[in-house]
Batch of 3 targets.
Target 1
Amino acid sequence: MRGMFLLIAMSALFGAGCSVISVIPPQAVTADDPEPRTIKLSEMCAAMGWSYESGPGAYNYTASGPKGDRIVFTIGKDIVSINSTKWRQERDTVELRGRDLLLPESTHNFVAKHFGMHHLVRNGSKAGSVDYTMDPIVPDTASKTENPQTPKAAISSELRGLHICIDPGHGGKDMGGEAFGVQEKTIALNVSLMLRDLCEQSGAKVTMTRTTDVYPTLDDRVALANGCGCHLFISVHANIAPNSDQVSGFEAFYNGNSAEGQRFARNLIAAYAAHSNAPNRGAKKDPRGLRVLEKTKMTAVLFELGFLSNEAEGKRLSQKSNQQAMAKALWDGIVVEWSKKASVSR
Ligand SMILES: [Zn+2]
C-alpha cells in the first residue's frame, strides 16, 4: 500500500516536473576577498518581511512571502526552489546552523533580487567578520513613492502575453564607455527603466537584469534571462568610437545564427530610425561573440543607442526627454516584433 502510494507520488512529481534547473551565478571571489560569504536565512527573511520554517522534508527549510511566494532550501544541497522553479548554486551549498540556515551570499542576492527586494552590500572586508547592509533596489528615475515591486498597471494591450528581459548594459564598477562626462551605464539604465515602464503599461511582463547602479556579470545576466522564461531579450548600450569624435548613429547587433535575432534587430532599427535623425548604422551580425547574444536562448538583440564620443550626440543621449523618445522608439520596435512573433508561433 505504502509502495503504491510512493509510486503514485513519484510519478506525479515527475509528470509535473521535468523542470529545467538553471544556475545561480556564484559570488565573485577575488584576491582581496577570498572567502565565500554567507548570511542567515533568518536575516534574509527579516529584511524581506518573510517568514520561514523547517519542512516540508526533513532536510528542507521553506521561506514564505506575504503574497504566497515560496522558496525551498535543502540542507547540504546546492538546489534552491523558487516558486517551484529550481535553481542550482554553482559552488556553495546551504548549511544548517542551529535552527537557522547559512545561505551563500550569491544565493541570497539572487533570491532578494528575484523578488525585487534588495542587494546585499558588504561593509568593509575585515577578515573573519563581515557586516552587511541591505540596500533596497529602487529604480533611479522612478518616483521614490512608487513601489518598485509593483509592475505598472497595463493601460493598453499591445504587448499582452510578452515576457521580455531588459538588460541595461554595464553598471556599478563598470561604467561602460565614458566621454564628455557622460557615462554609458547611466544612459543604458535610464532608457531601460523607461522602456520597462512602457512595456509594462502595454501588458508585457518585464524582467530587468538590474534596476540600479549595480554590476551583474555577463553570466549573471545570461542566467537570469535563460531562467526567467522570457520571449525577447534586449541589451541596451551606447557606443564609443575610440579615435573619432565624428562618428555618430545607432546600430543593433544579433547572433548571426539567429534568424529571429536578425528580425528583432531589424524591427528595432526600423522603429528607431523613424524617431531619430542620427545616422542609421543598421542591424548587424555580432562580430565579437558577445556573451549576452551567444549564450541567451531566446530572441536577443544588443542595441547601441548612439555615440558618447560624439559630443553633440552624447548630450542628446543624456537628456531625459530624448531618453524617453529613445525608449518609445525601442518600444515601437518591440511591438512590431511581438506581433510578428505571435503570428508565427500561434
Ligand atoms: Zn556597452
Target 2
Amino acid sequence: MPGSASGPAIQTENLTKEYPYGFLHLKKKTSLEGLTLQVETGEVFGFLGPNGAGKSTTIKLLMGLIFPTRGHARLLGKPTTDVAMHRDIGYLPEQPYFYDYLTAAEVLDYFAKFFDFTAHERRERVQRMLQKVGLETAGKIQLRKYSKGMLQRVGLAQAILHDPPLVILDEPMSGLDPVGRREVRDIILELKRAGKTILFSTHILPDAEMLCDRVGVLVGGKLQGVGAPGDLVGIKAQEVEILFTLAPTAQAHAPKNDHAPLLAKAARIGERFRLQVKEEELYAALEQLRGASAKILSVSQIKPSLEEYFMHLVAADRAQAAAVEVSGK
Ligand SMILES: Nc1ncnc2c1ncn2[C@@H]1O[C@H](COP(=O)(O)OP(=O)(O)OP(=O)(O)O)[C@@H](O)[C@H]1O
Ligand SMILES: [Mg+2]
C-alpha cells in the first residue's frame, strides 16, 4: 500500500552522472559525483546548491528520466527503473510547461486520467486540488492568462493530485512572491502532517531552514554537507552584536581611538552604533565601550544562518577549483 513503505523513502548509493562531450566524446562533464544519501519516510528534505550544482540532475535520476553512469537509487524500496513504483511519486519538474490553451481544471483532469479514479472522483479531486493551491476561482481560465506563480501552483497541484506518499519538487518556490511562497510552504507542511515524504530543491534558504528536517548542500556535483539546519549552522563560530549610543562629544573621537580598536569597527545606524565581535572579544569590547562612556542598548548573540553556512561551502569549493586551475598551469 502506498505510504506504508518502511525503511528509507529515498536511498542513493554512489549515484553519478557524466555527460560526454567534445571530439569523439572523449571529455566528460560530471554533473553528479558519487551521491550517497538517505531520506527517511516522513522527512522533509531540502536539496540546496548554487546554479549548476546538480540538483535537477539528481532529481531527474530519481525520477528515472535520465540514467546514472554509475551507482543506483531506490525510491520506496524499489529501483528507479520500476515503472509502476512511479505512480506513488508526485513530481514537479523545474519550470513545468503546460499547454497554454487549456484551463487549470482541464490540465488536472487530464493528469487524473492516468489513475484509476471514476469521473466523479476526478471532478471532486480536481476541485479540491485547485482549492488547495489557491486557484479555485482561476480554474476555468486558460493558462496563457496565468502569471508565473499561478503556473507553478498548477504544477504543484498536478504533483500531489494522486495523493502520493513521496513528493519530489524541483524548485517549488521559484517565481513565487512572498504570499505564494508562504502558500507553498503551508502545502508542504500539510503534506508532512499527512505523513508524506518530501524532497525539494531550492535556492531560497530561509524557506529550507523553516521547512526541512534535514538539508543537503550540493556544490559542483558533490554533496558537501548534510544535516538538520540547526546542527549545520552550529558548526560556525558564534559572534555577538552590541548596539550602543555615544555622547556627541565622544562620537568625534570614537573611530580614531587607538585604545579602542574594536570600537573603531562599529557601524553607525542613525543615532545608534552597531558593533559585531567574536564571542571571545565580547569583554574587551565592553571594556572599550565603558572607556568611551557608551550607553549599551543591547547585547545579543548572532545566530549564524543557513545562508552563511551555504556561502561558506560554495566559497570553499570555488577556492579549491581555483587552486586546481592554478596548479594545472
Ligand atoms: N543534458 C546535459 N548535457 C550536458 N550537461 C548537462 C546536461 N544536463 C545538465 N548538465 C550540466 O550539469 C550540471 C548540473 O546541472 P543541473 O541542472 O543538475 O543543476 P542545478 O543544480 O539544477 O542548477 P539550477 O539551480 O540552475 O537549476 C550543469 O553544469 C549543467 O550544465
Ligand atoms: Mg535545477
Target 3
Amino acid sequence: MHFTDTVYRNPYWPTFPLLQITQGCTHNSCKFCTMYKDVPFKLQPIEWIEEDLKELAEIVPDAKTIQLLSANPLCMTYDKLAPILEMINKYLPKMEYIYACTRVTDIRNKTVEQLKALKDLGLREISLGSESGDDWTLERVNKNCSASDIIEQCGKLTESGIDFWLCFLNGVAGKEHSMDHAIHSAEIFSRCKPMLVGTGGLTLFPGTPLLEEAERGEFTPLTEKEMLIELKVFVEHLTCDCYFNTHHTSGIHLSGPDFLKRKNKIIEALDYEIRYGDMDRLAAIRKNKRTL
Ligand code: SF4
C-alpha cells in the first residue's frame, strides 16, 4: 500500500480498510494544526491507487466499507473523484459505504447532482472539520471558510443524501471570544442538522502559530474549567438531534445517540465536572496529547 504520510484512522470506524487518494492537506494553514505540517499536498498517482486497490482486493475481497485518506481527499473535482470511486467498486464489488474526512470548502466545487452521483457510487458519510460556526473564530484561526459556507455546503450534502459530521473545537477562540464561539457554533450546527456533532478540546502543540501567539500574549488559552464551561454553553445552545460525540479529557461519558433526549443529562454531567472535577488531572492528560 502507498501510505506516504501519517495515517489518521477514524477511531469510530476501526475496521474500515484505508485507501490513500491524496497526500497532506490543500490548506495546511489552520493555526492550531500540526497534522500534515511537513507534508506537501498532492494527488496520489492513479497507478498507485489502482495498485492499492488490487492489493485490497486480495486481502479483503468482500469489503463493504472503506475510508479515503488523507486530510481532505474530497478536494478533487467530480471529474477526478468519480473515476476513483468507480475503480473502488470495480476492485471491491461489494462496496457499500465510502467514508472520508474533508474540509467544508471541498464541497464547493461539486453540484448537488454531482454529489448525488458520488453517493450512488458509495460515498455515504463525510466528517467536516468545521471547528467553529463563528465567523470571528474561523478567521482568527485561519480556517479559510465562513459560517455561511458551512450552511451552504451542508445544505448541498443534505439535498444529496450524504450524511455528514460537524466538529466543534472547544477552546479554539481563546478566552475573549469563548462564548461567541460556543453560541454561534451551536446555532450554525443546529441549522445544518448533521448526523453527528463531534467535540474535541484545543491543545496547543509546539510549532503551531497559535502556541507562538499564546507565548507572545496575543492568544489567551482557556483553563480546563473554562473549556468545560464553554462546552456546556455549546451543548445548551445545540438544538438539532444527532449522535453527540466528545473527546473531552474529563472521561465523563457524554457520547451517544439521541442528543436531544440526553441533553439535560449531558448538561448535568458537565455541571458536576465543572464544580468537582480534578482540573490538574485534566491538564496533565492534555499535556500528553500528541495530535488533535
Ligand atoms: S485542521 Fe484540517 S484543514 Fe486545517 S490544516 Fe489541519 S488538516 Fe488541514
